[in-house]
Design brief:
The chain has 134 residues and is mainly α. It is 72% helix and 0% strand. The chain has a domain of 86 residues: Substrate Binding Domain Of Dnak, Chain:A, Domain 2, CATH 1.20.1270.180. The longest helix has 29 residues.
Length: 134
């Protein structure tokens, strides 16, 4: 009983953490944890696909020199996202319990969606374009 209460408290704290958003009802209403994790994985895959499409559009809008910086920034951002989500979800998969993969992917999805919006703004106003308004 203590473990399930602790897990529920951890899950609640993670969902209220800055930058982490609850899964849509279809994941929260999953019939079991495995289905919830699969749902979260599918949402992350969808967000990651959108990220890749938007990132490709940005690379297409940049001059060659800018592409090198964008690639380096994106690699650093992916590393940041993954480490930030380990931090926000309590320190990694070795914490025990079956809920961790779902909440980790939930964090990845939320941060990925934020990054998509950031990259969309850069596509509209690529680095070095002084005609764009701040």
């Amino acid at each position: 009983m203590k473990r399930s209460l602790a897990t529920a408290a951890l899950f609640g704290a993670i969902l209220s953490a800055p930058g982490v958003h609850a899964q849509p009802a279809q994941c929260a209403d999953a019939p079991n944890q495995a289905a919830g994790t699969e749902c979260a994985a599918n949402l992350f895959k969808k967000a990651d696909k959108e990220l890749n499409v938007t990132y490709s559009a940005l690379l297409g809008a940049l001059p060659d020199k800018g592409k090198d910086y964008a690639r380096a920034a994106q690699r650093a951002w992916v590393d940041f996202r993954d480490k930030e989500c380990v931090s926000q979800t309590g320190g990694g998969p070795n914490q025990g319990g079956t809920i961790w993969p779902m909440i980790y992917m939930e964090c990845q999805t939320a941060l990925t969606r934020q990054r998509v919006e950031e990259l969309k703004a850069q596509v509209k106003c690529p680095g070095g374009d002084l005609s764009c308004s701040p």
